[in-house]
Amino acid sequence: MMIASREEELLEALRTVIDPEIGLNIVELGLVRNIELGEEQTKVTMILTTPFCPYGPAIIEQVRHTARNAMGHTVTVEIGTELWDPSMMEEGAGGDWGLF
Q: CA dist 37 to 11, 14, 46, 58, Å?
């Protein structure tokens, strides 16, 4: 039996955060760009599919809440400067949408 790392546990929890416009989770979409795990605080750096995503504030808050519940401590969410591109998606994630 494998023991999941804290980062894997966090990513699994973040799979419950769905981008409502696309209908895929933020991990599948490749929106989570970096995770810095600490003993008392975790920082998640993410991007949005578009810079002016109307659901952005709600998604960011859901990420913060979900990550805090998974980690059991304070989580900060920062928005990275990268522009999202469909190539960032997990392999096969866009198939149902005909994106590839």
A: 12, 14, 14, 23
CATH of domain 6-86: 3.30.300.130
**What are the tens digits of pLDDT across the range 23-33?**
999 999 999 99
pTM reported for the whole predicted model? 0.88
CA 2 to chain centre: 23
Residue 57's alpha-carbon distances to 32, 90, 99, in angstroms, are 15, 23, 25
